[in-house]
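Intended use. Records like the one below are meant for learning the mapping from a protein sequence to its folded structure. Do not use them to infer anything beyond what is encoded.
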Amino acid sequence: MKKMVSFSGVMVWLITLCLLIPAAGAQEASKVQVVAAAICKNVVDREAVDIGTQFSNSVSRLYCFTKAVSTQIPTEVVHVWSYGDVERARVSLAVKAASWRTYSSKAIQSHEIGPWRVDVLDTSGNLLETINFEITQ
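Structure written out for the chain above:
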């Protein structure tokens, strides 16, 4: 004789299964956060100098300054410099304390006029911050 399984029994089993299996493709929350980020002309004594969102094409180098806090030490953040939609540089930077200031720099050519951005990523590739800026004539 076959035993019939009740509809409510099947539903309880399915709900339990769904609760035990994490959502497919769900990303773990990042253990690092950006608390300050800026594009600037220099970094002096671990502070951004001449912060801006528009810079003349006569500037020869710009810096991306980032202050990060993390519950996982050591870790890294990654600065991805893009001119328009083209990645121009990718720089991995160590985060060695719970609160850490770091920066990368990029040489800017005088003909590279237009929109730029720096995406700040964690080690899993999660986007933490985007800083947009423009090079003008």
